[in-house]
Structures are given as structure tokens and as C-alpha cells.
Design a protein that fits this description.
InterPro entries: Chaperonin_GroES (IPR020818), Chaperonin_GroES_sf (IPR037124), GroES-like_sf (IPR011032). Keywords: Chaperone. By secondary structure, the protein is an all-beta fold. The protein is built from no helices and 9 strands. It has a 7-stranded antiparallel β-sheet, with no helix packed on it. The two termini are about 25 Å apart. The mean pLDDT is about 80.
């Protein structure tokens, strides 16, 4: 990975979902703009606040997909990450474990 790039693996396949009320929402349904969570696999040398293993929140419209050894990953810039969920942040008293 170079510069400020972050390579992530999405949490799950984008397919049919269920609402909290149990209604099935098909994958083809148009939803409001929604951010997605992903797990960080690799980072570039200039990334400052993210480490491999963290979960990050990003806008799916600002992504570039790349296939590595048959697996699909998303390539982001560090500035495109909206939040970082990491256990190392949650060690502080009263902390939520999220960078915003």
C-alpha cells in the first residue's frame, strides 16, 4: 500500500436485508445514502489514525473496488474514512471507541 491508502474488506455481501420489523428489503431497492462499515486489511506508510484490524465507516459511493487473489476489496484514501472503531481507543475511561 502506498501513501495514504487504506485497503478494506466489506463486512458482508450487499444483498437482501431485513428491517428491524422483519420486512424483507430486496437488494435492488433504492435506499437513502448510507455509510458502510469495513475491516482494515492494509494501510499505506502515511496513514496516521488507522491500523490493520480496525473497523472503518466510509461512503460506498467514494470507493474503488480491487480484486486481489480472487477476493474483492475496497481501496480508500484516509480522508474518505468518516469514523474508526478500534479497541485500543476504547481503553480510555468514558470513551466510545470511535474516532469521529
Amino acid at each position: 500500500m502506498l501513501h495514504d491508502r487504506v485497503l478494506v474488506r466489506t463486512d458482508g455481501p450487499e444483498g437482501d436485508r431485513r428491517s428491524t420489523g422483519g420486512i424483507l428489503i430486496p437488494a435492488t431497492a433504492e435506499l437513502s445514502k448510507r455509510c458502510a462499515w469495513a475491516k482494515v486489511v492494509a494501510i499505506g506508510q502515511n496513514v496516521r489514525s488507522i491500523e490493520p484490524g480496525d473497523r472503518v465507516l466510509y461512503d460506498p459511493e467514494d470507493r474503488s473496488e480491487v480484486e486481489v487473489r480472487g477476493e474483492l476489496y475496497v481501496l480508500l484514501r484516509e480522508r474518505d474514512v468518516h469514523a474508526v472503531a478500534a479497541e485500543r481507543v476504547g481503553d480510555a475511561t468514558g470513551s466510545t471507541g470511535l474516532y469521529l
